[in-house]
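Format notes (please read before filing issues)

Several people have asked whether sequences and structure tokens are stored in separate files. They are not. Every record keeps both together, in the order shown below: the sequence lines, then the token lines. Line labels are part of the format and must not be stripped during preprocessing.
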Amino acid sequence: MEVRVLFILLSLFLQLRGIESSMAMAKPGCQEKCGNISVPYPFGIRAGCYLDKAFEVVCNESQNLSNLYSVEGFQILQLWFNSMNVLIDDRTIGWCQEAADFVDPHLCVHYALNQRFSFSHSANKFVAIGCPFSAFITGVGMPNYTSGCATLCGIPFSGFPFSPLTSAADTCSGFGCCETNFPRDLTSFDMRILKISTLNSSENNVLFATAFLAHKEYPTHKLYQQSDKTKIFPVPVVLNWVIAHVTCHKAREGRNYVCSQNSDCFDSNGQGYHCLCSQGYQGNPYLHNGCQGSVCFFRGCY
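Then the structure lines:
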């Protein structure tokens, strides 16, 4: 009896391994990875491998180093199709840096993403470093929506307007550094900075002002430990993506509906939809026959 049970379990395990190994993430004949980064469809590296130009990516391979970029130029650190997220390096898009003589008030950054993508409000935060100044982020096309925070110099400081945060336990709470959330996803935005006048005249000269978007889990204190505070360092940011700017209902009525067999369609929080394999299936829901059946037993699926 025990031998039979072991045989059944081994057979189920081998079936699972077979399903996992046979699941394709990229289209047949297409490059599946750029270095260590998987490139699942609807993304693709060359013509015929992506759903449309919005999902085209570029793999830059040189001197044993592979980097993945969007056609818009930002570096991609990770792609996920189940959570509809892209992890990117923020150096190329979201940094606002100004020296002491910046015009006040000042539009520092304007950025607009491909309409299929948006900056995730649930996964990112808006950060400002320096003092004393205020930083604001405004959603373009949403004139009533602005979020921001203010920094003061405080004590102690040693001639440089950056709070001496040294560990993850330190908070970015308004002295030399501030951070805030923004309540909705942004496809395009403006960043502005504004000097603050204080009662202490020695604090009224802004030596440097920096504002940027960052993943909420990014330890802001790391930026304070850099010797060159004026340098732009890599900071991770999460983008959301959708297949198209239509609802599932509208998509099903058209010819370009992309959710494959054994998958379900979900409307995104913004405008658009995405696909997930149905319960009991796993794989890539955007590929033909991309969702493969799991093995279910003992009232569960594994």
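For reference, the curators noted about this record: Helices lie at 2-22, 221-224, 248-253. Residues 89-235 form a domain with the Jelly Rolls fold (CATH 2.60.120).
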